[in-house]
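Sample entry (260 residues):
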Amino acid sequence: MVTDIPGAVMCRTLDTLQLARRLRTASMPGSRGLSTGCGLTDLLWENLQVQRSKPAIPRQFAGDPEQPVSRGDHDPREDAALVGRLWEHLVTARSIRWGPGTMHRANKGIAALPDDHVAELHGERTDPNTRGTQDAFTAGGPPANRVIAASLPAPTAIRGLAETLQHDGLLTLGRLSDEELFTACQWMGIGQNLQVRERIADGRSFVKTQRIRPAQALWESTHPEQMNELFQARRHASPRLASLMRGQAATRAKLATAVS
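Predicted structure, serialized as tokens:
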């Protein structure tokens, strides 16, 4: 979603959550399509006893571009690091645990990972019963494939917002790379992210109401120190929280005025 990925990397890439769902549904026929306890939140807790900071997206909203589900100002890089830790655990422990999910009479479970699955985790083989990750990102995959970075033209609309904010002194001067501009999209809710990317794909400009959240995301993604302090305050409910929240509200008001 941020930058193009060479084919040599894609052919060795695995959707870890897809593997978990496949093993779970194989042990529970008829569970396909239901909440199986194999989401990232469940897998991290069951296998690593790690709680994600990002708020869970309600299942009925996940993937729906009409629902601008908020990330709660959550830094997307944390999830990327946690996926790496989960993968490392699966390779070394050679087992995977899942949560109960919301299925009727479902329980937590565990499955051993034999050599074939470990080889799959290493990118050395593709399960013959599933489409490879590379295929999923080419023609014939889900509609969202048209909005991955490799399929999009230059993010001119987002660059225009960034230059407006720089002109008003709200962003540091200097040309942001396309990768940095696409990274800002990842700070938005899934629905907002896809709406922005669809407009870039079609060469359309943003309407007024669609300019504000990308502007906020540009500021958030380029000010990690301030955002990390805010995350920490929220986690620990420190006395600084109210002050930081007021500061965030003031910054967002300035951003909205600048791009509107």
